[in-house]
Amino acid sequence: MIIKEVDLFKEVSQKVVSEIASAAVEEIYKAGMILFESGQKAHYLYVLEEGSIDIFVGERGGLHFVINKSGDVFGWSSLIEPYIYTASAKCMTDSKVIKVAKDAIEEILRKYPSDGLLMMRHLAGIIAQRLRHAYQNISSEVELHTAPSTPSYG
Fold it and tell me: HEC string of 41-109?
């Protein structure tokens, strides 16, 4: 299973990675399926194996982040209070995903707090990267809508 190659779990002990892999379930979703919606209780952390997932905020286009690299994680709201998804996830293509229940991860991390700290550090890095991406998207949109127009002399 791809769990061993996921950045979120790098430097985490083999024992913890094995326990997380044991709790993981592999599922296949069709293009167009919604995995979760913004505002729902976050019960699962997801890892992409194959395919492409659109993570989006807002119903009318809004902000998008495409997950298309094997080993990328999403649904990280399941690891952080208040355990509510902050975005929606929709399969852009048929996709193979691994999901791990929030409760299983919490139980494992309670047993191995130092590994939990490592995971949370990696998670903070992942969130920071996505936040930078969001800032870039917003900045591009603002520039697009506030660019000076060419005056018409006609």
Answer: ECCEEEEEEECCEEEEECCCCCEEEEECCCCCEECHHHHCCCCECCCEEEECCCEEEEEEEHHHHHHHH
Spatial distance between the Cα atoms of 98 and 96, rounded to a whole number of angstroms: 7
Q: In this predicted model, what pLDDT tens digit does every residue of 1-48 receive, in sequence order?
A: 689 889 999 999 999 999 999 999 999 999 999 999 999 999 999 999
Which CATH number applies to 2-139?
2.60.120.10
Q: How many CB atoms lie within 10 A of CB 115?
A: 20
Q: What is the pLDDT of residues 57-84, one digit of tens each?
A: 876 667 888 999 999 999 999 999 999 9
> What is the predicted pLDDT for the residue at 22?
97
Q: How far is CA 126 from the centre of its chain?
A: 8
DSSP state for residue 154 in the 8-state scheme: -
Q: What is the pTM of this model?
A: 0.84
For the chain, the domains span 2-139
* Structure token pair of residue 120: 């949370």
> Looking up tokens 């949109």, which residue turns up?
141
105 Cβ neighbours under 8 A, 6+ residues apart: 20, 23, 45, 78, 79
User: Tokens 């969001």 label which residue?
Assistant: 134
